Amino acid sequence: MDFMEILKQHGPWVAICVYFVWQSWVRETKLGVRLNQLEEFLHTTMAGVITDNTRAMILFREILKERPCLIQDADKIVADK
After folding, report:
1. Residues of 26-54 as b/e, b for ≥16 C-beta within 10 angstroms?
2. What is the C-alpha to C-alpha distance for residues 57 and 6, in angstroms, rounded to an integer?
3. Torsion of Cα atoms, 49 then 51 then 54 then 60, to 10°
4. 77 contacts: CB under 8 Å, gap ≥ 6
C-alpha cells in the first residue's frame, strides 16, 4: 500500500488521535506551569511561617527561662487553647 492510500483510509482517525494527543499536551503543559506556581507560593509562604514560628518558639523559651512557674502549668495552659 502506498502512504497516500493509508492516509486516505485512516486520515480521520489519525487526525482525531493527533488532536487528542495535542490537546493533552497543552493541558499538561498548563498544569505543569500552574503546579510550579503553586509550589513557589507554598515555598515562600511556608518559609515565612516557619521563620515566624521559630521566632515565637525562641521568645517562648526565653519567657520560660524567666518564669519557670509557667513550665509547671504548661499542661493547663495548652489545654485551655
Report:
1. eeeeeeeeeeeeeeeeeeeeeeeeeeeee
2. 72
3. -80
4. 70
Tell me how far apart the terminal alpha carbons of the chain are, to the nearest angstrom.
Answer: 79
pLDDT tens, residue order, the chain (81 aa): 576 777 778 787 877 888 899 999 999 999 999 999 999 999 999 999 999 999 988 888 888 778 777 666 666 666 665
The pTM score is 0.51
Whose cell is 487528542? That residue is 20
Rounded Cα distance, 10 and 1, in Å: 12
In the chain, domain spans: 51-81
Q: How many CA atoms lie within 13 A of 81 on its CB side?
A: 4
Nearest CA-CA partner of 49 in 41, 60, 59: 41
